[in-house]
Structures are given as C-alpha cells and as structure tokens.
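Attaching the record inline, Q. Sequence:
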Amino acid sequence: MTKFLTAAVAAVLATTSLGAAGAASAQSRNDHRYEQRQDNRNYRPNPHQNQRPAPRHDQRDYRQDQRDYARWQQAQRRYNAPRYVAPRGYATRSWSYGQRMPSYYRTSNYVVHDYGRYGLRAPPRGYQYVRSGNDVVLAVVATGLVTAVIAGLFN
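Structure, as predicted:
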C-alpha cells in the first residue's frame, strides 16, 4: 500500500510540474510572438531593394487622401468666376456634410467641370463638384449626398 501511495504522490507531482512547465513554455512562445509583432511594426524596407512597402505606408496615403477631401475646409485661395444665380425656387445656402442637394443642382449649370483651374483635385469616381454660392460642394452624382464642402472658393 505504501508503494501505491508513493507512486500516486509522485505522479501528481510530476503532472503539476509538467503543467507549470507547459504554461511557462506557452508564455514564452506568446512573448516571442509579441516581440515578432513589435519587430514587424518597426520594420522599414531598404529603399535600394525591390521590396513591397510596409502596410502603414498605404494607410498614410489613404489618410492623406481623406484629408484632401475633408468634410469642411476653408479655401486657401479665392477665384473669380461668373456671377452665381441660384436655381429657381431655391436660395443660396450653406451646405454641410451628410445633406442631400436637390437634383436641379446636379445639372451642368452648377457642376464645376474645370476643377483643375480652381486648384481642386479630380473628384473620385461617382462624385462631382457643384457650385453653391461662393462655395464648392463635393457631392455624389447619383444621390446628391454632400461629402465635402470647400467654403469661400469664389469671389
């Protein structure tokens, strides 16, 4: 009976020490993975080698594009343009992000086709610049949803 108890105690001690060793090795593996993530985060490609840039460069470009089409921005420069006449039945008003422009504003009388002349970037596919008073609005062609306003672009 004593041999049986000794063997049972030895087995229990062996499994608890293996469990602790297994947990410790799992923790060290997780630490290694964490260190790898940190190393990858600080990775900078050599510009003299043909390597794919790290994903964060793409994210910076995306954020820069988003800033270029900010929801509301003051024009850096003012341009002379023909006199503005509001559509019949509408008064000149200030538009803001998320509003919908009536379909009449989306006609060729109000769409700014020569955006490069006024220092505007090309609108994304499916969008157009629309003049409203002295402001220019970037709106969705199909629905008129306002996505950006450039205030005070025209004199």
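The chain has a mean pLDDT of 75. Residues 2-41 form the longest helix (40 residues).

More tomorrow.
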